[in-house]
Every structure is written in structure tokens, then in C-alpha cells.
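Hi W.,

Here's what went into the run:
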Amino acid sequence: MSATATEVPMLHVQVDGEWKQFPKGTRLIEACMKSGQFVPHYCYHPKLSSPGNCRMCLVEMGMPKMTPDRKPVLGEDGKPEIGWSPRPVISCATEISEGMGVRTSSPLVEECRKGVMEFLLINHPLDCPICDQAGECRLQEFSVEYGKGESRFVEEKVKKPKRQDIGPRIVLDDERCIMCSRCIRFMQEVAKDDVLGFVNRGSHTTLTVYPGKSLDSNYSLNTVDICPVGALTSKDFRFSMRVWFLRETKTIDVNCGTGANILIGSRENVIHRITPRENDFVNSCWIPDNHRLNFHYVNSAERLKDPAVRGEESPVKWPRAIQAAADQLRKNPGATALIASARLTNEELFLAKRLASALGSELFDVLPRPQKGDGFLISQDGNPNTSGAKLLGLATGRLAEIAAGVSTGKIKTLLVLGEEATDCGISAADLEKLDSLVVTGILPDQTTARATVLLPAASWAEKRGTMINIKGRIQRLNRAVSSPGQARDDWEILRDLIQAVGGSNGIYTIEEVFKQLAAETPALAGLSLGKIGDLGVDLKMTKSE
Amino acid sequence: MTAQPFVMPPPHPKERRIIFENISQPGYDPSIDTFIKHGGYESLKKALTMKPVEIIDAVKASNLRGRGGAGFPCGVKWSFIKHDDGKPHYIVVNGDESEPGTFKDRYILHYDPHQLIEGLVISAYATNTHLSYIYIRCEFPEAAGIVWNAIEEAKARGFVGKNILGSGFDCDIYVHQGAGAYICGEETSLLESLEGKRPYPRIKPPYFPAVLGLYMKPTIVNNVETICHVKHILRLGPEEYAKMGTPGDGGTRTMCVSGDVVKPGFYELPAGAVTLGELIFDICGGLKPGRKLKAVIPGGSSAKVLRAEEIFKVKVKGADGQMVDKEIKMLDVVMDAATLGSVGSMIGSAGVIVMDDTREMVWALNNLNQFYAHESCGQCTPCREGSLWMSKITTRMLDGGGQGADPKTLQNVADNIAGRTVCAFGEACAWPTQSFLAKFPEEFEAVAAEK
Ligand SMILES: Cc1cc2nc3c(=O)[nH]c(=O)nc-3n(C[C@H](O)[C@H](O)[C@H](O)COP(=O)(O)O)c2cc1C
Ligand code: SF4
Ligand code: SF4
Ligand code: SF4
Ligand code: FES
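Here's what came out:
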């Protein structure tokens, strides 16, 4: 094997007595972690620069002993002997070099950690009972793990500002801040909106926002995520739920075509917060504020809970609603159109297409949502699954034709899946002209109000399935909460409709839907929900493999 | 702009004034004419006939050590800069002089600015630097004006600016004023400040100034006095210059003596020419009547304190080259880098703080602790929290609230700072506590036990 110019050389590093190899440029802390040796840290963040300010990651470091003619001294085992430095070094900002040795635990290292923990705690308030961070606080965790367990500090603590309103979505408690500067660096290096900084000196150092400015970037809430303590809290989430009660569900953001990976934090069927989930192929560790906060409608009391059939007493049961819908959909062959949504999953779109063909209708489309995008994580596509809609042939560009057909009366039956028809160029008055309007949806709108059959569906947080982002990465949605009332998964509604119009055998699981979808779609060949995993799969890559 | 007239007392016979030669002339003023009348800019003319590497070699041969505190060999520092690496180089003169007990640079800046400018242009020529900065602490506003003015004068005469004295070498100099923080004297913090940022010291590695300095370009940071010496190395020749000092510590050193002596002040002495006893008793006129020497901090407030009756066991090179054990009494400690290092302290900035028997050591330490707690930049945890904690403990002890555990806690807090911080301020604030506790344990125990 010949080394090419682009190949990164591998270096030998001894981690707690064992020799390992890592690519040149690896930070020492990363070499330790990859070797399974956790090194506690506060200021280090893999996606940010290393200021080396918290001093929590101090380790013992050594370099190979050299003979006078600069050759490494070999020990009995034939491996280089290490000359240990008497001073501890920070592992977060030290790059590995050939033959380096590191000890992640030793009496000196433990002394250092104890010392730093004590220093961090002496001026820290005892707010844990009322602090949102409690339960996911690095200060709490590390003081249990590495601290002394007792205090000998008998002086008065430094007083600092509390409950500082530094931005529309964030509250700062300066007494809790451990001055790790993660938030400052995030705003400088990632959000590119350098509004945070420290003022004053020494132990009186205080985080603040630049005079006349506000921490109002659409990425501001990421600072709350990376703040290792409860200094920065989200106004939206503050005091709403103890984090240890939250169940976390891995899923994806559906607010645009990026498909940022997220965690939904929920308890007893209520969503309390959304936080980003690391995926270096998609969103690194970040998400936009407006996306993460756009979940309250899922918890809304207004949610559509029961199927309805015009002219019949509500609520109706599902079998009746499906029957009514199927009857109406079959009534006007040749005058039936379907509006699906690029916010639906691939599985749903796949079944929607089957339903259309079972109905003999070729007139269908999805509503495109071009938007400006922010050049970072908000894409120029406001739909999360345009790629899926295109791949499955549902994005036909015939929306205007459908709208015109409704207006002229050429179309008599319209099936609308999860869209507001009035956003599709069809006026409310035109909707009234329809013979039948079968609608799935989650919240009341002008379309559901005019539905002849209304089928309450599941929100994105309530279902499983897949979407393909603008870059062609297929990713999974997962169910965090269950749907309210009788509302159910769209794929089940569609399956039942297909059966009712006489077009299919039963499918009983979402896995089966995906299997059929993958079997019919060359781009998805060989994939299963399991194979897609938590981080998704690049479809272009699988194609070329 | 002119400073208050300043008259230096006549030199003590042991003194050898090089840096302060001009300033001690009666009627000497900071104008360029006066400077030239006293032989100014002759070394620069000579330098421009030499190859840059010859100047660096001369500085190496002179054994000049930095006068800012760390005492790094100046020529070695310069040789880290690669002459033709195609990158801009910078020299930054550290005129932040703020180490308690140190007061020498201010006289150069106020009274003999051209000496600094001449040294700086020579240094720039030697290191292929075309842009230099003189960083002056904000508490010397007048000095900043005087130095600016001197730069303008030097420019008008072709000593600074484009094509200096027709040599084809260009060098511009700017003055930058600090905003009032001791930490800006730390070289990487100074560079951050110069870049217009909050002066947080940088981590080293990777940010060694010679590699990733000002604007991430190779940079030399030198103390005001250090840069002035360069001119005299060329004037006297490196051998002659080196001969004045000891083998590892060439030239003269300006010792600033403050505290309980009859004649406090600064004295320019060949490195290693005097012992601590000679400095205090011969040169500074001894202690006030009836007082006894108690303690000396020999190298600026950060240096470890020495106790008057202490006897140090050190290893020195004997006549046959073998290392032999020797005992040195405190007053016999020679004032040079090596000897002060061997007795566990340092020459640092050569700010000698003398304390007599009226001084309480808890009070003295508290004074230092308060300074360091106030000046810690707050970037890194141990120094930020530890410096204030130590200060709170000693303040409480002085206020009559001493507790039995205080000395132990103080010791342990200091131990948890030194060696674990971003910059050497960590040691600077821990060493006083560590050394005062080690040298005067009985005073701390006594105050801690008081109720
Ligand atoms: C906390 C701290 C404060 C310092 N203050 C000064 C200062 O005021 N003036 C100075 O010249 N050097 C000061 N230094 C030393 C500088 O970092 C640097 O070593 C020096 O300027 C290099 O110049 P030299 O080699 O000529 O001594 C300080 C160092 C530390 C750690
Ligand atoms: S930041 Fe952590 S340690 Fe501090 S009050 Fe909150 S939960 Fe407690
Ligand atoms: S607010 Fe949080 S992230 Fe920001 S510096 Fe303080 S502790 Fe670090
Ligand atoms: S040691 Fe002190 S002065 Fe130096 S960086 Fe840390 S906090 Fe700042
Ligand atoms: S994690 Fe290394 S110093 Fe903070």
C-alpha cells in the first residue's frame, strides 16, 4: 500500500497503558474517548474551538524517552518508554503526536479534577431544586463522580445577576455560569452572530450580551443545549418539566428539506421540548429555533380527534368513515383528483399513489413550498419530503390543473391528504362546488371545514416512516407520542381506503409498507427501516455501491 | 509633551549605568537632538551595515535575558523567527510594566524614548520585521504621548519609516495604549489586547508568539528594557557586554528596590555584581533605624519570598567542575538569575520588595492576594476562583476571623492553582501563598488560632 498525499498518517498513542492508533490531528481528549476512557470536560465541544479554560480535562501526558542520538528508548516489551511530564496538560487542546502517552486516571489527575470541581462549586448557587438543568447538569454529574463531596468554603459567595433577559427565547442566570465560553464560541463560530461576551474580571467575570444587542439569532437555543449547566435556559421549556421525566425519541425535523435530526422530549403523551441530535451528514449538533419550537400545535386541544361524515351524527366510527369515503371516492371515476403532501412520509405517499391508481385517477400532485432558506440549516424547500414525492412520482406539477378542474366543475371528487386546499390555489368557494371532498388532517382549517368526509390523522411526532431530505438522504421518523382521540396513522387510513375501494390486500405493519415500497422503487432497493438506522442512508451512495 | 523633570541621584560605585546613562545626565531631555548629541542612533547605523543574522548572533553571545520576568534568553527567542518565511513578522514591546515592585520601564518611556526606538528598529532589522508596536499601560498616558512624539521625530530624521537611512529597510512603529489590566503584561494576553479583544491569555501550545503571535503571525514580544539593551550590545560589542554579567546572565540589570529601606529606588547593576545584603545595606542605605530585616521578595511580587535568617542548601559548580553542596545565607544570595533560581525564587523583573520586622506576614500576603484576586483575568477556573478564595481567607484572618484550618486550606488552594492554569499568572498568584506559608508558618498558625 502506498500512502497518497490525502491519506492522513496514523500515530501511535499509549492510552492508559495500551497502544492505539489515531489519525494525525486528533485531539488528545478524542483519542482518550475513542479508547473508551472518558475524560470529564466543560469547555471542550467537538464542534467548537478549544479555549482550554475550564481545566477539567487535565491528564498526565508523556513523550517517548530519547537516546542521545534521538532514537526512542525501548522498554522490555519492545515498546517505547515514556517520560512523563510532571505537569498535567489539558487534553482538549493538545494534539496527539507519535509515541505520546496519556494517563486519564492517576492520583495527580484525580487531584486536578477534585480541585477544579471545588473551584467551580465554591461560588455556585445551590439552585438545583429550582434549576431546569438539574438531571442533565454536568456540574452535578461531575461533582458526584469527581468531586470531594464536602465543602470547606466558609466565605461569602460572589453575587451575580440572575434571571437576565438576554434574548427573546433565553434567560441567563449568571451565578450558575461556569464561564466555559461555549455559548460565546457557538455564537461566533457557528451562528456567526457575535453578541455574547464576558465583562468584568476574575471571579466577577459575567456573561452578558453586547449592549444594545439581543441574543435573538434563530440559532440561539443551541446555546442552551451546549451550556453544561443551568445558566442558559429556554423560556419555552423553563419550569415545564423535570428532565428526568422526559422520554426521548429519535426522529427528524419536518419543517424543511434539511431533515435535521432531533430528539423529542415527551412525557405522558405531551411533547415538552425538542433538541438537536448529532448527525454530521445533516445538521452537525444544531437546529434552528423556529423549527425546534414549532411543536406546540401537536399538543393542541384543537386537534381533530374523530372522523366525521357530512350529514351524519358525529362522532362516527372509523369503519363507517372509511366506507363513506370509499363510496364517495368511487362515485365520479374520471372526475377524481388527489392532492397529497410533500410533508407525508414515503410510505404514505406510496400508498396514496396506489390509492390513486385503484381509483383510476391520474390527476394528483403535491404542494411545493419554495422558500428563502438561511444558507445554513433552513433549506430552500419548506417541505421535508419533496425528494420522496419526486421519487415516488407524486410531484407532477399539475396542481394548477387540479385547481382549474375544481373551479370549472370538471373535477367532482377531491381527496386532500394533509394539505390546506386553499393554499393550493383552490378557493373556499370552489371547494363548496365539489361533490365530494375527502380530507385527512390534524387541525381544523378551511379544507377540513368543508370536508364531506373528514379523517383525523397523526402528526409527524406520532408516526413512524421515512422521508428523503433535499440532499437525498433517507431518514426515519419515530413515534414520540400517540395521536389524540380516534386519530390514526395516515398509512393505516390509506391502507383501509385502498382495501375499501377494492385495490389491495391487507398490510399490517409499517415495515411491510416499506418492504413493498422498496421492492417497487429501485433507488430504495435492499433497504429496510432497520438498515436506515438512526442516522439515515445517503441514497446516492447506496446507488453507486 | 514632557514629563516632570526627573533628577537621578549620582550612581553608587557598584552601579554601571548603560540603560540609565543618558537619563542620569543633568538636563537630559527626551528630544531627538539631545539623544543624538549623546551618541544616539549610532548603533542603528552600525546595525544596518551588518547582516541580520550577525545581530542575532551578537544578541545570543551577549547572554541577554529578557527583563520582563520570565528571563528567556533574548537571542534564542529571536532565532525562532525564520527570516525568509514569507510571512509578516511583528515585534511587540511590552511596556505594560505592572508587576508590583517593578518601576524601571516607565523611566525609559518617559525620559529616554529614543533609546527604545533605536533598540526596536535594530531588533526589527535583525528579525526582518516591518511593523512594530509599543504597548504602553493606560496608567502612563503621558508616556504614550512622549513615545508617539519621539516616533514622529525619528521618522522625520529617517530612523523610522520607509527606507531607513537609505538602507532599503522599512519599519513602522505604533504605540498602543492598554486599558488598565495587569494581565495585559502577559505576552499572549497583550497580543489579544492589541488585536482589540478581551485580553485572555492564549493556551501554549499552540499559540507561542514566535509561531502564532499577533494576528497569528510570527511575533517577538520583549520587555522595554530588554529591547534597549540591544542597542548597547552593538555599541559595546557582545563580549564586552556579556562580561559585565555572569555566564548565563549578561549585561546590567535594573533592580527596583521598594519597601522598608532608607533609599528605595532603582539601581542599574551588572547582573550578579551584588548580593542581596549589599543591595539592601550598601546601596539602599539599609533599614530604617532600629528595624530588623524580616523578608525579601526578590523578583517582583510573584517571586517566592525569602526569610531573613534563612540558610539555603544549594548545589554549585566547584573549581574542579564537580557539583558541590554549599550553604548560602539569605543576605549572601547573589542577585542573578541562576542563584535566585537555585534558592527557590527568581530574579523575575528584579523588583526587590524589602520588609522589616514591623511587617506582619499575613498582612503582607493579604496585600498580594488582594492584588491577584483583583487582576486575575478570570478565564480559567483554578486562578479565577482560587485567587479570590485565597484573598478572602487572608482578609478574614486579618479581620480577626481566623480559623484553625485556614493555613492548610490556603496551602491546598494554592497547590490546586499552580501548574494547572492557562498562563503563568496561576503560578504568580500561588507562589506568594505557598512561600509565605512555608517561610512563616508560625505567623499564619498564630493568626488562624486567634479568636
Ligand atoms: C501575569 C504576567 C504579567 C506580566 N507582566 C509583564 C509586564 O508588565 N511587563 C513585561 O515586560 N513582561 C511581563 N510579563 C512577561 C511577559 O509575558 C513576557 O515574558 C515578556 O514580556 C517577554 O519579554 P522579555 O523576554 O524581554 O522579558 C508578564 C507575565 C505574566 C505571566
Ligand atoms: S446548574 Fe447544575 S449545579 Fe447549578 S443549580 Fe443548576 S442543576 Fe444545580
Ligand atoms: S452560559 Fe453556559 S455555555 Fe455560556 S459560558 Fe456560561 S456556562 Fe458556559
Ligand atoms: S491563570 Fe489567571 S490570569 Fe491566566 S488565564 Fe487563567 S485566569 Fe487568566
Ligand atoms: S475541556 Fe479542556 S480545558 Fe476545558
